[in-house]
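Appendix C reproduces, verbatim, an entry submitted by the partner laboratory led by Prof. M.T., so that reviewers can inspect both the input and the predicted structure.
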Amino acid sequence: MSVYRKTNPTNSTLDFKGMIMRFQGFRLAVFFVFACGLSFGAHAQEAGEGATSETEIIQFIRVEGTQRVEEETVRAYMVVREGMVDDVDMVDQSVKTLFASGLFSDVTIRRSEGGLIVSVVENPIVNRVSFEGNGAINDNTLTDEAELRPRQVYTRARVQDDVERFIEIYRQSGYFASRIEPKVIQLPQNRVDVIFEINEGPITGIRSINFVGNKAFDDDRLREEIITSETRWWRFFASSDSYDPDRLNYDRQRLRRVYLSKGYADFRVVSSSAELTRNGEEFFVTFNIEEGELFTFANSRVRSTVETIEIDALEGAIEHVEGDRYDLRKIEDTEDALTKLLGEKGFAFADIRARTRRDRENNLIRVEYVIEEGPRVYVERININGNDRTHDEVLRREMRISEGDAFNRVLLERSRRNLRGLGYFSSVDIEESPGSEPDKTIIDVNVVEQSTGELTFGIGYSSAENVTTEFAIAERNLLGRGQRLNLRVGVSSEVQRYALNFTEPFFLDRRVAAGFSLFNTENDYDNEANLETRSTGVGGQVAFPLSEDGRLSLFVNLSEDELTNTSSSSLVNPGYQVFKEEIGYYYSIDKRDDPIDPTDGWNFGFGQDLAGPAGDISYLRTTLIANYYHEIAEGWVFHGRATAGLIYDYEGGVINYSDRFFKGGSTFRGFDRSGIGPRQVSTGYALGANRYVVGTTEVSLPLGIPKDVGMKANAFIDFGALGDTDSVSFVANDIEDEFAFRATTGLSISWRSPFGPVRFDFARALVKEDYDDTRFFRFSVGTRF
């Protein structure tokens, strides 16, 4: 079937023309592309020629501007070298290394005719480094810490580093508002003087210490327990009222131990913060704490996984019983006691773990002391670090563990306590590290030494001795050997004392203290008996521990004692001059929680001394003292004290006046010095006695002021009796000698002031004899520096 198409002649002509136009457009496009290709090739060729010019070889390097620095030194710091390809990055790196050398303040490198020209400006040399405005920290301390020193190259970086280091030193000393401005003085020959202008500002104190979350103890009580204290005018001799971050961390641990010793087993310090005031002069310190509940001990026991250990023999070592308030210290004491017992029984590798189980419903804690066979690890070596002055053996003899011993953590902790107790070091840190073999360990003892010498001078006044002066030199660590030397001179209107004492605490490398003393004491009893006494002599003593808390001392004294009558009316006290040989012992045991300011526990002392037979006189003297402390309530501490003494001549003679007992003044408040006891009626002279019994009951009274103020008040009752004199020359009708009971009551106020101890005693006699001398008010004040 054929189909015919009808075409339009006009449309055919238009299509042909379009084809011609499209062909011509194609030709133009080809020409454009070809032209671009030629242009690109030309540019590429130019670029290639340029690259060839930039990669030419460095033919020379010339250094300009050096004065002291050798040219070879400059070239040595550069990355590029002669003969290398000229590379932009390497040239830039050379500039950086020259700057980093610290020798130059300016460096430029430029190209010139196939080489490099290096232009430098040298940093100046430090001629002198000085400080202005510093008073709290001396020049030597700052100089030792400075990086910038004379004859070194000056750089801004070193100066800035020193400024930051000095500011940190001032902050460690409590000066957070300090400002330091370095000044540079240009000198001839490219030298400079560097002056650090220091504005120390005031020491940054503690405006307030606050506690959040405490209920059992108020803020005042907790402030007493920490070292950091608030800034007060009376603390200008103390440093604890300045801010110290390390001290604040230590206070966190002190708070924890306080609460854990008072029954709060879940106590924790959530946070401690210090906020600086805008003027940079004071801090606000805040402790955020969680006390938790009060716990008591449940029935506790000892359990052993070592079959050969007999448990029954160890149960008695537990320091707490059911119903006692929870106390972490008693757990630690129990661990120490068990460790010692097991060591004595041959179980050196026993490991003791105190495992506690809480009964939160009844607030009880049951402690199970689990004894396990510990790893057999021995001490390979003990390293002592930081003891620049103190000899190694002084520290090693305080260690409860030695090289070659079985490793024991409890004994290691006891060693740390012993070292801190010496008082020679401001900090003691003990670290462990692996030894040369798996069963060996190395112990590093790191200490920081502190001053152990004291020079004191005191001036005071007391109603008993009027004006008193005292001078003393004491050294607790003589020549770094741990020896003690004490020279003391005391003078008042009634007493003159001169004494020199020396003690070697480890005589013959044993835990035996041995020493000697020289003394001269003169007493004026003119007001009491128109007498003067003098005792001059020498003594020797040894002391050694019998237990952790018990100590025995043995002593011998040789002296010449002299008594002189200052009035013919003192017929009952004939003068004498005798040689006395005295030997004796003294046993003491101390279970107090704090030897300085106890609130719980007790101590006891008992001693006897025998005079003769090589001397001119003979007697046996016995003395006893006992103290008991118990905290009744917060801030209320009960103190009971008992003392007694007895002296008699075992050959039937008469006890000399200077060897008898006298009571009154500070030893029996409410009576004058030598105010009670046997007395000559016609003259009123005190005769002294051969026996006495004196007791005290007192209660400390909270004053509502911070503990660190150092002020205390005690309400007291003193009671006792003094009597029995044996002088055969006494006229019976002229002597009052009755072993009669006396009692006084009053208030005692003491203050450890910045100037020295101050004490006021107010007392009134409740029971007395007609011939006793009473005194309602007595005080003393002194100063030391």
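The domain at 61-122 is CATH 3.10.20.310 (Ubiquitin-like (UB roll)). Additional entries are available on request from the coordinating office.
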